[in-house]
UniProtKB/TrEMBL annotation:
Any Pfam family hit: NMO
Gene Ontology terms for molecular function: nitronate monooxygenase activity; nucleotide binding
Biological process (GO), any one: response to toxic substance
Cofactor(s) demanded: FMN
InterPro entries: Aldolase_TIM, NMO
CDD domains: NPD_like (cd04730)
Keyword Nucleotide-binding belongs to the record: yes
Record-given protein name: Probable nitronate monooxygenase
Protein role: Nitronate monooxygenase that uses molecular oxygen to catalyze the oxidative denitrification of alkyl nitronates. Acts on propionate 3-nitronate (P3N), the presumed physiological substrate. Probably functions in the detoxification of P3N, a metabolic poison produced by plants and fungi as a defense mechanism.
Amino acid sequence: MKLESLLNVKYPIIQAGMANVSGHALAAAISNAGGLGTIGAGYMNSETLEQEILETNNLTDKPFAVNLFVPSNPTKDKNKITRAKALLEPYRTALGLKDLKIADTNETTDFNEKIDTVIKYNVPIVSFTFGIPTKATIEKLKSHNITLIGTATNLEEALLNELHGMDAVVLQGSEAGGHRGYFTNDKDTMIGLMAFIPEVVDELNIPVIAAGGIVDSRGIKATHALGAQGVQIGSLFLNTNESLAPTTHKQLMTKEIDHTVLTKVFSGKTARGINNIFIEEMKSYEDELPDYPLQNQLTSPIRKEAGLQKETGFLSLWKGQGRIKLQDDLSAEAVFKSLIN
Ligand SMILES: Cc1cc2nc3c(=O)[nH]c(=O)nc-3n(C[C@H](O)[C@H](O)[C@H](O)COP(=O)(O)O)c2cc1C
């Protein structure tokens, strides 16, 4: 089936679900413009997700998606956690943060509650990263006619997505901003879209969606020529009025000299973003830090406070490799329209 029909959209352009960045305003604006908006619900609890879905429904009658993180439930290495806390203390002190309280959440329980929420509110499309949900979850969603989109960073992961019943798969090229969605092994192959798309379309029957470094219609046409039926775009939409990213982050997106790097220091999982002092100072400890999501929980208060204090040195400034140009009109609608010509 063609991707437009599968998603029921005019344009096969998906605004990436971006945790902490894409809420109801951005998702609804993109869906209203003819693309597929996505609520980035990776870090939300089910109550917040419920509110976000209701708000999105108030703003659009077009289809939208919810993006979720497949739980990984890593073993808690106490020594690594103690060490990471000590390494993070200077940043906490610099920001005036006091006691470190980490919410004792269970990834799987949270995830299952969010699955129930999307079913309750008839969300038509759910996308996943960091893995493939269990057979039971996939069957449950499918029994409610929900369209499922997975994420792959290599051919093996793309094949697994198809095998487990995903209706479409996002191919996340090495150019992509934000967290890498790999789940088959820790050695991310870092294949770029130019090689990745043809490799996968030769092997898969489900539609593939290209993600990474796409910032204009040329990128869309190029990925289409290679066999992708649609695109998923993050960084360009982060830089819109409707995105929830801190203004300081948005301002850096269009800086003349952009230098993105891959780092695990914020979350324990590799992600691409703009280099800063936190990444530079912490990079020599990268392999000693706790796995995702433990390190993410430890740095979360630092990132939140850094955002409030406009301290970009300690923020996770996720960005892909595509050059984002300055635009006068940064409404999501105008930015979306700039992609269509
Ligand atoms: C700020 C930011 C946050 C992101 N958060 C998520 C997320 O929550 N879930 C997800 O599946 N992908 C996430 N991604 C990755 C996107 O799905 C996509 O792979 C990436 O944005 C494509 O590259 P681009 O940023 O160059 O467009 C994020 C990307 C960015 C830039």
